[in-house]
Write a structure and sequence with these properties.
Blueprint (H helix, E strand, L loop, with lengths): L2 E4 L9 E7 L6 E2 L4 E6 L4 E5 L3 E7 L6 E3 L3 E9 L8 E3 L18 H10 L17 H12 L24 H16 L2 E9 L1 H18 L6 H14 L6 E3 L2 E3 L6 E3 L1 E3 L2 E3 L2 E2 L7 H17 L12 E5 L18 E5 L2 E8 L2 E15 L5 H16 L2 H5 L2
Helix pairs in contact: 5-6, 5-7
């Protein structure tokens, strides 16, 4: 009896995927729960496992094919075991959830649905800026205005010819989604960046003095990220607009602090979230970040670990970046960029001294965050890092 290999549920609002590659060839023996095929979606990459033991007799969806939830990917003959059992899924690093504009039909409020019907536009063509990527009335109006504006020159329909030393590689669905979300952030937010610099002397001295005792007690190294998470939360509490988001004509202020920490992987940049970071100590923050980073690199992050952040921190300094302008992670309104620690001569009182300095950048949505708030946010982070006792005393 043949057992069908079906596309499992792909996640909230995701209805289709692309077959990335088969891990087994037709005719090969397979075991129950053995990974058979990799699928790419707008949100995650996942492995579909064999529902039973037998022989992979037929592949119905080849690599590159687009498939929907419930579609049959292939057949296993001589199946032994419970063929009806749902295939197990292993989530891999991915971009944060895509806003509506993917091929899945987004959920609409009655008012938005009425406007969509009156303007005769497709909801799947609209990039939502509301909570969880929902489409707002403003999004529909903006889409209609853009559609009626003067047409832009169309991109060449035929791919250009390659030179002898060039290679064409198709973008993965994940990479395309990352590109789309970054472009959405640029097009929808009034994004600006402000800068400051921080003297890292006191934090570095503190780490040096207590590094061994900290690691011995907590089983984790004391890094810089926990200091910046703590400093950012203190600043967010003072300046709640930086922790907020726009939902249509409303601003949603969040009284919780779920901090996204950007992690670079071979598949692309992902932003796992440290939940309720304000309730965690330094050791708990370091352990959580280390665990999420390892899961990201191993391809084991869950959707819950990738969604719902209120503010993001990214550290280009680990790659040697001295200064950059980080891009917003929608629907969030702020992102803090850390950079390389570089010894530089600075004025200390009436003297010039060499100090370990770091440039920091805050990119923010100017629609709800004023320049005063953005500058004050970085000043508060600077004050906390340059005098880390403030973090302990909460002043």
């Amino acid at each position: 009896m043949a057992s069908e290999i079906k596309v499992p549920t792909l996640g909230e609002s995701v209805k289709e995927a692309t077959v990335a590659k088969w891990l087994k060839a037709a005719g090969e023996a397979v075991k129950a729960d053995e990974p058979l095929v990799e699928l790419e979606t707008d949100k995650v990459t996942l492995e579909v496992n064999a529902p039973a033991t037998g022989k992979l007799s037929e592949i119905r969806a080849a690599a590159g094919a687009t498939v929907g939830v419930g579609d049959v990917l292939g057949l296993i003959d001589g199946a032994v075991g419970a063929a009806a059992a749902a295939p197990k899924q292993t989530l891999a690093p991915a971009a944060k959830p895509a806003a509506p504009g993917s091929s899945a039909a987004p959920a609409l409020s009655p008012a938005v649905r009425k406007m969509v019907e009156e303007t005769k536009v497709s909801p799947t063509a609209i990039a939502g800026t509301g909570k969880d990527g929902r489409i707002t009335k403003g999004d529909v109006i903006q889409h209609v205005e853009a559609r009626t504006a003067a047409p832009q020159p169309a991109a060449p329909a035929v791919p250009r010819n390659l030179g002898p030393r060039e290679e064409r590689v198709r973008m993965t669905r994940l990479r395309k989604r990352i590109a789309e979300r970054l472009k959405i952030a640029q097009n929808t937010a009034a994004m600006l960046t402000t800068f400051n610099e921080i003297d890292m002397s006191h934090v570095m001295a503190l780490r040096k003095a207590y590094a061994e005792a900290f690691e011995k007690k907590h089983g984790v190294r004391l890094g810089f990220m926990s200091f910046f998470v703590k400093a950012s939360i203190a600043a967010l509490k003072e300046l709640p607009a930086v922790n907020a988001e726009i939902d249509g004509d409303d601003v949603i202020y969040k009284n919780h602090y779920d901090i996204g920490v950007a992690v670079g992987t071979e598949q692309g940049l992902v932003v796992p979230v440290v939940r309720d970071a304000d309730q965690l100590g330094f050791a708990e923050i370091e352990k959580t970040i280390n665990a999420l980073g390892k899961k990201a690199r191993d391809g084991k992050l869950s959707m819950d670990e990738l969604t719902g952040g209120t503010f993001t921190i990214t550290n280009g300094g680990v790659y040697g970046s001295l200064m950059s302008t980080p891009i917003l992670n929608p629907p969030q309104s702020g992102i803090l960029g850390m950079h390389k620690i570089q010894p530089r001569p600075i004025a200390v009182g009436d003297k010039i001294e060499i100090r370990p300095m770091m440039y920091v950048a805050l990119s923010y949505d100017h629609r709800i965050i004023d320049g005063r708030e953005a500058v004050t946010f970085l000043v508060r982070v600077k004050e906390a890092i340059e005098d880390p006792q403030r973090l302990l005393l909460e002043v």
